[in-house]
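Exercise 7. Given the components listed, write out the predicted structure of the assembled complex. Treat all entries as one system.
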Amino acid sequence: DGGITQSPKYLFRKEGQNVTLSCEQNLNHDAMYWYRQDPGQGLRLIYYSQIVNDFQKGDIAEGYSVSREKKESFPLTVTSAQKNPTAFYLCASSTSGTSGSEYQETQYFGPGTRLLVL
Amino acid sequence: GENVEQHPSTLSVQEGDSAVIKCTYSDSASNYFPWYKQELGKGPQLIIDIRSNVGEKKDQRIAVTLNKTAKHFSLHITETQPEDSAVYFCAAATWAYVAGGGNKLTFGTGTQLKVEL
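Answer.
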């Protein structure tokens, strides 16, 4: 899992509750990402951050929030506004290329957190 | 935005046979195409990737081919083994010319590969 840790492995959410998923990396990567994975579907991007104190919405950001106060950490909060939160959540990170370069950087994934609704 | 289609959704092969998984993409600006292997309950792991300035790349039993004109790329696994059984995802990305870098991957829906003894 390349130096990316996610916790907890399983998380249970009650109706109306906000829960926070942790993602930490010790790879000195600038960019970090959150994906959601549902059965039979590919990974869908929730939020991503290319640098500390900056982040952008992905394709399915509604009902989620993030922060990027430290380079190593990119926590994801699943809010009560997310009506169908049951899924497998994956965090990833990558180094950044030089602006103007065509060089792509590989994304490395953590082991994931499975979120279930009680 | 980018759309990536992946086929087949399931694939069963006999041990020792070859397996081929195909993906098509819609955005002609995409220039990076990784393949990931995901075992049950784990995060995806990169197995091979290809950039748009290359038509083919090989790493032991795994190879990827890219046809930019047709906007499709394929994963080839030769001499399959039981440990190759997993879900495989293709993805496509376009480099973002911004400070700090990073890239947005669009994933296919995955192929469940089963290698039977």
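Discussion: The longest strand of chain A covers residues 43-51. Chain A touches chain B at residues 1, 4, 6, 30-31, 33, 40-45, 48, 50-51, 54, 58-59, 90, 92, 94-112 (CB under 8 Å).
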